[in-house]
Amino acid sequence: MDVLQRIQRLVRQGYFQFTLKALDEMSVDGLYPSDVVESIGNARTVTKTLRSNKPFRLREKERLYVIESFNNTGTLIYTKGKILREPQGEVFYILVSAKISTRSG
In the chain, which ranges are E strands? Predict the structure, then answer.
């Protein structure tokens, strides 16, 4: 399964969380969680994959997925998130950023 389909499935099933940063960004832009969910559901591609190597993580590099897509009212929304595997086997999509895109549609 490709990564976008995996993210969309996790979000559709409710296996996602917003960081405080993402919630703050959404609030500033007047976005609701449903806007972000719609945008991810409507996406056709992952715009970019970023790799970060946080110093406190000795395991592997963290992959962040950037998605820019429209919600159902035509607002272009930028999201950045990661897939997180919990020790007990749960998998979540963590949205670390969610705001109106500065890129013109």
Answer: 16-18, 48-52, 62-70, 76-85, 91-100
Q: Phi/psi class of residue 73: alpha, beta or left (left: φ > 0; alpha: ψ in -120 to 50)?
A: alpha
Beta-bridged to residue 49, according to DSSP, are 65
Q: Which two tokens stand for residue 68?
A: 């820019």
Tokens of 94: 């963590």
Give yes or no for a contact between 94 and 15, defined as CB atoms under 8 angstroms apart: no
Q: What is the rounded CA–CA span in Å between residue 53 and residue 26?
A: 26
pLDDT digits (tens, 9 = 90+) for 30-86: 999 999 999 999 999 999 999 876 655 555 678 999 999 999 999 999 999 999 988
